[in-house]
From TrEMBL:
Residues involved in Fe cation binding: H109, H113, D304
Cofactor requirements of the protein: Fe(2+)
Catalytic reaction(s) noted: L-threonylcarbamoyladenylate + adenosine(37) in tRNA = N(6)-L-threonylcarbamoyladenosine(37) in tRNA + AMP + H(+)
Annotated organism of origin: Polaribacter aestuariivivens
InterPro entries, alphabetized: ATPase_NBD, Gcp-like_dom, KAE1/TsaD, TsaD
Enzyme superclass (EC): transferase
GO molecular function, one term: iron ion binding
One of the GO biological process terms: tRNA threonylcarbamoyladenosine modification
Residues covered by the Gcp-like domain: 22-310
Name of this protein: tRNA N6-adenosine threonylcarbamoyltransferase
Compartments where found: Cytoplasm
Length: 337
């Protein structure tokens, strides 16, 4: 079974061909235009998707060494995401499926971040059910219990900002370009994580809050800069290490709570922030310290990519779970929908 996956929910245009659960190609076109604006500009994202989608899909098919007539179905991201961006992928997927007379499969982007763990790969192990997934991305921070491929329950989530936003907004305060998460990670490697203690938020149970931390960082930096105008330049590595340490501490604490509550010790991470080196390291340590079995995605399946859409499409294909051509994009979509 060959599935073409198409992802266009935010600012990356991506297409992937998989053969059963094996990835044959996974082409991602990043959009450079947003970096100078300090965030994604929806109108520009939509236009860039329109320019990218045909060549990206063509490349994915070529790299997979098949022709489009070999495809068994087309999977696309229905939501959540930016409406203008989703519409490009949705309309393209629909017309291609109609033209080729093959099934169309709509995919929930948040389920796909999680189900990327079911891509077959010699290096990766696949989590058994039930498992817990910490989804950490640009728009979401959730602890999800996965009982079966499409049976999920949100155990906790952020009440304000997502963890990716916490990274990106902190980076912006430090004058770093968008998206700042990977840069904080890079500079943090050279700094002392205990240099500057930031206050952790107090939110109940398995929920998260990051807006207070962001404000705390802003006030701290402003105060230090009044004393020393070069504070950021002189302490960039320590500041980044301290911010990253605080964020990862928050994530690990909530995961420990989730394990306590559910008694499930199979722990996965997913989403763009799961590329972060500190959370990956800490999760590996948790195998030794707490006896967890952890599932860490390959880098190319952390941030937005179409391979995760294709694998989710494949799992739906096996259930004959197809969509109607009247299916519409949905900007807001819960992982459980
Ligand atoms: P969502 O999936 O919730 O709709 P999204 O698709 O925009 O959001 P992703 O592509 O999954 O989000 O993740 C992007 C986020 O990941 C950005 O906030 C980026 O800064 C962050 N990120 C990527 N790499 C790292 C890293 N190494 N360390 C920290 N954050 C990172
Ligand atoms: Fe995403």
């Amino acid at each position: 079974v060959y599935i073409l996956g198409i992802e266009s929910s935010c600012d990356d245009t991506s297409a992937s061909v998989i053969c059963d659960a094996k990835v044959l190609s996974n082409v991602v076109a990043n959009q450079e235009v947003h970096s100078k604006y300090g965030g994604v500009v929806p109108e520009l994202a939509s236009r860039a998707h329109q320019q990218n989608i045909v060549p990206v899909v063509q490349q994915a098919i070529e790299k997979a060494n098949i022709t489009k007539e070999d495809l068994s179905a087309i999977a696309f991201t229905r939501g959540p995401g930016l409406m203008g961006s989703l519409l490009v992928g949705t309309s393209f997927a629909k017309s291609l499926a109609l033209g080729l007379e093959i099934p169309l499969i709509d995919v929930n982007h948040m389920q796909a971040h999680i189900l990327a763990h079911f891509i077959h790969d010699n290096e990766n192990k696949t989590p058994p059910f039930p498992f817990i997934c910490l989804t950490i991305s640009g728009g979401h921070t959730q602890i999800v219990k996965i009982t079966n491929y499409f049976e999920m329950e949100i155990l906790g989530e952020t009440i304000d900002d997502a963890v990716g936003e916490a990274f990106d907004k902190s980076a912006k305060i430090l004058g770093l370009p968008y998206p700042g998460g990977p840069l904080i990670d890079k500079y943090a490697q050279l700094g002392n994580p205990k240099a500057f203690p930031f206050t952790k938020p107090k939110v109940g149970d398995l929920d998260f809050s990051f807006s207070g931390l962001k404000t705390g960082i802003l006030y701290f930096i402003q105060k230090q800069q009044r004393i020393n105008a070069n504070f950021i330049e002189e302490n960039l590595h320590d500041i980044c290490a301290s911010i990253q340490y605080t964020i990862v501490e928050i994530l690990m604490e909530k995961l420990r709570n989730a394990v306590k509550q559910t008694d499930i010790k199979h722990i996965a991470i997913a989403g763009g922030v799961s590329a972060n080196s500190e959370i990956r390291k800490r999760l590996q340590l948790a195998e030794k310290h707490f006896g967890w079995t952890t599932y860490i995605p390959k880098f190319e399946y952390t941030t937005d990519n179409a391979a995760m859409i294709a694998i989710t499409g494949y799992l739906k294909y096996l259930n004959n779970d197809y969509s109607n051509v009247s299916v519409t994009a949905k900007a807001r979509l819960k992982v459980t929908e």
